[in-house]
Each structure stands twice: as structure tokens, then as C-alpha cells.
């Protein structure tokens, strides 16, 4: 994130065909998560007084266009965040409707917090250091897909029957063709929801509706289901095996679309790092009492913690494999500067250790704030370093404006490799679906897969009320389009985005008394989606 991502609606017409699916920190010592930051009121080093809150005048993002009230392009509002925090702990706000972008306390790859803030069009002062690249691990063995492929036989129309013995991978089929629809522009106007308050816990989000419909993959052929495969009932990886991208869907080893839901862990402080252990992973993945039924875990590592704390990532990765769930190591850099050399070393080490498993998914830039051409070049560099070791596993790709412009990436996609997914981040109390959805729909309609690799029901600064109504709108949309997600965050720092209270066990299982209001809303959605995942 940084950790959290950073409303008149122009309706987009979106024609959909149903998809045929066969088969049953202590907050005072770590940055407040968010997508954008607020105005600074003193340098972090001296702990100056917090800056005045408020929004700047609306302007067209990146161009300083006319005020929407006079007919200009919609603006993006900056949320103010508490400034004057300790070094490395700048508070960040979110993207709100109608103002200019503020950033206050963006952590660059070297870990230094930029003093002051960044208003639209300007960059604040701040240094950056880069860590040294770690040694790569030993080369992995042949990849096991977790299933046995069939050989011979007639191939149904449009599909390919995989051949080979145990451990081989079927090619499967591709998703059914779907229609595209035009997307509307991002809405503007309105005021930012008030932060800082928590809900009383009485009302819970329903978690959306389960649906196999939504936008279908474009340009594909009939999905092939091979009898005897993808029917395991033990774990998500046992059932789905090697994932790949077909059209705008993530599909499993049999070519069936699959939706994964889980949690994002937290590397900003010990309140999150305490959960990087095998028992916590087992209980996040398990299906028993006090366990949370995550099919996937996102595992952030701050660049300044590599390679010294690589062991923590590997502990979680090993535990995910042992418990049969997917794992997404995330190079958790926020801002305009990401070091492709260091990130490549991180993912090459992981690919050497785990590239022969179907469990690993790569996410090489958490929340970029620079232009797509720059981000694209970075992604291409990291991917090129990994693909000779792991040619198959999925890359999740960040994009401009704190992962809120996947449409820009999909308009100029990376084309020299396959199995790519474009991510988006949202916080429901700040980012309303109606204003955000067009940027996602443009990718789906163009035939590209997407994934919500970080989201919350609260505000983009990690606090504020859990917005049950808006979160349900988002979950319904994700379910309708079979879009996977990982919620922010597994930690106990007291922010309303935390799913565990400050006194919660670091290992689990977790009784109801260990769960926050956010967790009481999010965990039922994850559990419901797990049941869907195990029937796909």
C-alpha cells in the first residue's frame, strides 16, 4: 500500500454475458496507511505541529484543469493527514472527490520519509537510499501443478487437452468470449467521509452476492473441463493448482475461472510482523473454529528490510505451501521511485526457491505514483529477471496513482510475456464504486484480468468508519466479475483497518473477542468466497 490506497456519476453502459462455470504499528511509529497524504505541518524529523486540514481547489488530475463547477474536468481531492510525525511515520490520506493531490509522508524505496508534502505538480524534498541485492537461492526443480493431466482423447471445440503424466500441467481451455462496454468517467464532487470514528459493530456487511456472471473473457474459446481434475476438496491449491490468465480471467489448471479472497499482512511495525509465523498462517488458512479460510495471503516486505528480513517472507511462503493456499510476496514500495535491481534480486531469490510451485504470485511494485511508461519499464525489467527461472506464475502489476489507474496500463499493456494481472487498490469509505468502476471496466472490456490486491472498508488513511453500504457495493461488483481480493490488514495497531484488536494472539486461532469491527465484516466475506473457490 503505502499501506492504504490511496463522487456526479457518468454512467457507463456495460454489456455483460454470463460466464459458464462448470463444477460445483503502533500507529505512532508507523505511517498511517493510505493512498495519498495530507498537508504537512512540520518536518518529520522535528515533529512539528500538524498542518491545517482542508482540500485544495478541484483541478484536472495532472493538468490543473478548470474547476468542475465551471464545466472543467473532474478533479481528485487530497485528504489531509496528520503531519509532524516521527521520521518515517508520515500520515497519508486518500484520494477524495474534488480537490488536488496531496501526499504527506510518502516512503520511498530507501525508507526515508519525505518531509513536507507533495501537492499536484510538485515533488517534496526527501532522500532515498537503496539496499543491497541479496544472493539468489538455488535453482528450483520442475513445477508441479498439483494435478494429474489426462492424455489422448478428442478435444472439445476451442480447447486443448493436456498431455503428460503426474505433475504435468494441462493447458486447459480459454474463457468464453464476452462483450465489451463503454465505461464512464470518474465522478467528482462531494466531500470526504469524516475519519477517526469507528462503527458500533452492530451492522455487518453482507459480503456481496455470489454470482458466476459478469464480464467474460474476450476472444477466447470454450473452456475445457477434464474429468477427474479440479475436484479436490482439501485445499485451494490442491483443487486449482497452477493458475494462469486467459482473457480477463484468472483460471485454474483445468481452465475454470477462479476467485481468490484473503488477507494482506503488514510489514510496517511489529504489530503486523508478529503474524509472519507458521501458526498464524495455518489459522488464517484453516477452516476450523477461530480460523479464517483465506485462500491467498499477500506478504509485504519493505525494501529496507531486504535482504536482512527475507527469512520472514520465506516463513510465510513455506507455511502457505504447507497449508495449500496461494502466496503473493509484495515489494512494498510506495511512490515514484522503485529500484528495479533490488526488486529483481528479491524476486529472483523467491523464484529460485519457490518458482517450481504453483503457490507463488509476484507483486513487484505496491503503489506507484509515477507515469505508466516508467512503471511499465520497471515491471518489464523485473519480469525479465524472473521468467527464465519461473515462466508460468502470475505477476500482479501496479499502475499509476496508487493503483487507481489500471485503465492506463491496459491501454498500453506489457506484451512480451503472459500471465499478467493489473491490480487496483480502494478504500470504500473514501473511494466510491461509482467513481472508480470505469477504470476497472476498461481493463475487463479490453480483455485484461484485474485483482484488488489491497482494499478496506474504512477510509484510505486506515481509520474512519467501516462503510458497510459502500463495501457491500464493492463486494457485489467483485463477485459479479469474479475478481479476487486481499484485505488490509493483518495487524493490531489500533487503526480501524486492523482486523485484530491490540491484545489478539500472534498465532491464533482467534476467538470473537480478538476480532475488530473491520474483521467482523471482512472475515465472513472471505469465508463465503472460500466456499465459492472450493466449488469452482
Per-chain topology:
Layout: H1 26-29, E1 36-37, E2 76-78, E3 92-93, E4 95-97, H2 236-240, E5 244-246, E6 249-251, E7 261-264, H3 270-273, H4 278-285, E8 296-301, H5 310-322, E9 326-331, E10 334-335, H6 340-354, E11 367-368, H7 372-386, E12 395-397, H8 400-403, H9 406-411, E13 420-427, H10 433-445, E14 450-456, H11 468-480, E15 485-488, H12 517-533
Helix pairs in contact: 4-5, 6-7
What does it look like?
By secondary structure, the chain is α/β, with parallel strands linked by helices. The protein is 22% helix and 11% strand. The chain has helices at 26-29, 236-240, 270-273, 278-285, 310-322, 340-354, 372-386, 400-403, 406-411, 433-445, 468-480, 517-533; strands spanning 36-37, 76-78, 92-93, 95-97, 244-246, 249-251, 261-264, 296-301, 326-331, 334-335, 367-368, 395-397, 420-427, 450-456, 485-488. The strands form five sheets. The chain has a seven-stranded parallel β-sheet. The protein is globular. Residues 1-204 and 206-227 have low confidence and may be disordered.
